[in-house]
Specification:
InterPro entries: PbH1 (IPR006626), Pectin_lyas_fold (IPR012334), Pectin_lyase_fold/virulence (IPR011050). The chain is mainly β. It is elongated, with a radius of gyration of 24 Å.
Length: 513
């Protein structure tokens, strides 16, 4: 897999390998806490650190031992935790208020916030406060196996979990997940005067403010987020002038959130992968003003969005509501690859480099499958060069609405559309080696005809539901596409893609079926 410079690949590979190693112990933690909790407590004990137990169902406060636990968030907040310590909440209980534990861990001995006992995950209920859980200017925390909620009768700047850096220093080492975050009454209106409240509202928010404040090594994984005003995950780790690093956002499920699904901003080489986002903009606290998108990046250097599924965005914002967006201020290369997108009212992709500070990132959009999105848009004031190749765009229920950056190379894609569709033909847009069914060819170049998909239009609710877009052995798109160097080395399904032999057109490069 090729994502840019070799150093970036190695760094991304280390983060991904570490995440996959964790996945085996965290993926099942939502239904039963004992295994993950016991592991966390055991890890802490091996460092000769202490564990503080909290059971908010107890009528009296104890000393924090397992047999005599604390019984309130205020008592948990009153202690300062040391490297290797664990703060554990009793399963099947609810604690009310903002949990803001003090202290920092180290890289070899992080502090763990988790659950203990059997039964449902313990609930931390912010009860309308700004945050249910808050970590500020701290380092090396593991947070998982909790249920966070923060409902209220009115909307305001609210989160389930907030991690902030405000002191002009670099803070690092945050492993976030698995968590359930549900019903957070965050702000859903992005227009003035509530714009900043919206930006700071979501299920999980990280932020860095103040000169030279940054966050690093932020791993957000295996969380289930729903009904959170403002959005699902907003991972901001720096600023335009100084960026955070080590951001990995993966294996999260975002459903019915009133704002952006996932955004990573001001990061060096962030990776967003294996996430599932549906119904973005809806939920108990639905989006109410301005713009939002499914998964997007802003102010990053060399961001990658890959192997995600985004579907069912039915609420149209002012101009966006796309599945994916390379927004303003990105530098280097913004890569969107191997994603599945379906039935999003704002379309598949937005180029918005002209929406703010122009970063001029090169945009590589490859090996994605878009079903019934029917729209791509671009803000032409940007300076991005788009290379759009080996994608599938399938839209048979309404005409395609496609706007591309002024400098675009469009090759090896398969376009299925309606006869009244018109693809852009501006002087800076090159059309090479595409297949067009239904939609008229924008130039003489390309194949006009049926691409012979196995079973198109049958995409479902996951990355793995797109097998209908593999090609039959009778397809006219086999083995006659343009050879592209630096093509990532594989197709949507993981089949190899050569840099010397002609590939198929579209997202599939395996044997004809």
């Amino acid at each position: 897999m090729t994502f840019g410079a070799s150093g970036r690949r190695r760094a991304a590979g280390r983060r991904i390998a570490a995440a996959l190693a964790l996945a085996g112990t965290t993926a099942l933690a939502f239904t039963s806490a004992p295994t993950a909790s016991a592991t966390a407590v055991a890890d802490a004990s091996t460092t000769a650190a202490s564990t503080t137990y909290v059971d908010c169902s107890r009528p009296t406060a104890g000393d924090g031992s397992q047999t005599s636990p604390l019984n309130s968030i205020a008592q948990a907040n009153a202690r300062t935790y040391a490297p290797g310590d664990t703060l554990a909440f009793a399963s099947g209980t609810t604690c009310t208020g903002t949990l803001a534990p003090k202290g920092s861990g180290t890289a070899t001995a992080p502090i763990t916030l988790t659950s203990y006992g059997t039964g449902a995950l313990p609930v931390i209920d912010g009860n309308g406060a700004a945050d249910a859980v808050l970590l500020s200017n701290q380092d090396h925390w593991r947070v998982g196996n909790l249920h966070l909620t923060n409902p209220a009768a009115t909307l305001a700047r609210r989160t389930g979990l907030r991690i902030t850096a405000t002191d002009g220093r670099a803070h690092r080492g945050f492993d976030i997940g698995p968590l359930i975050v549900d019903r957070v009454a965050g702000q859903t209106d992005k227009t003035s005067p509530t714009t900043e409240d919206f930006v700071q509202s979501a299920g999980i928010v990280t932020g860095a403010s103040g000169t030279n404040s940054t966050l690093h090594d932020v791993h957000v994984h295996h969380n289930r987020i729903s009904n959170t005003g403002g959005g699902g995950l907003k991972i901001r780790v720096g600023a335009m002038a100084v960026k955070g690093s080590g951001v990995l956002i993966e294996h999260n499920t975002i459903k019915d959130v009133g704002g952006d699904g996932i955004i990573a901003s001001y990061a060096d080489a962030p990776m967003i992968q294996y996430n599932n986002a549906s119904g973005v903009g809806n939920g108990v606290y639905p989006f109410s003003g301005g713009n939002f998108a499914g998964i997007w990046v802003l102010g990053d250097h060399n961001p990658t969005i890959q192997k995600n599924a985004v579907y069912g965005i039915t609420r149209m914002s002012v101009a966006d509501s796309q599945a994916f967006d390379c927004d303003w201020g990105n530098t280097g290369t913004c890569t969107v690859q191997y994603n599945f997108s379906r039935d999003n009212i704002g379309g598949f992709f937005l180029d918005c480099d002209g929406c703010g500070t122009i970063g001029g990132a090169r945009q590589i959009i490859r090996f994605n499958i878009s079903e019934n999105d029917c729209r791509m848009s671009s803000v032409s004031a940007g300076r991005s060069a788009l290379h759009l190749y080996n994608n599938v765009f399938y839209c048979t229920d309404r005409k395609l609405d496609i706007t591309l950056p002024d400098e675009s190379v469009v090759e090896n894609n398969i376009w299925v559309g309606t006869p009244d569709s018109r693809l852009p033909t501006a002087p800076g847009v090159q059309w090479l080696w595409n297949v067009f069914q239904g939609v008229p060819r924008p130039t003489a170049n390309g194949i006009a005809g049926d691409p012979r998909f196995v079973n198109p239009g049958t995409g479902g609710d996951s990355l793995h539901s797109a097998d209908g877009y593999k090609l039959r052995s009778t397809s006219p798109a086999l083995d006659n596409g343009s050879v592209i160097s630096g093509n990532g080395g594989r197709d949507y399904w993981g089949n190899p893609v050569s840099t010397t032999t002609k590939p198929h057109r579209g997202a599939y490069n395996g044997p004809g079926l």
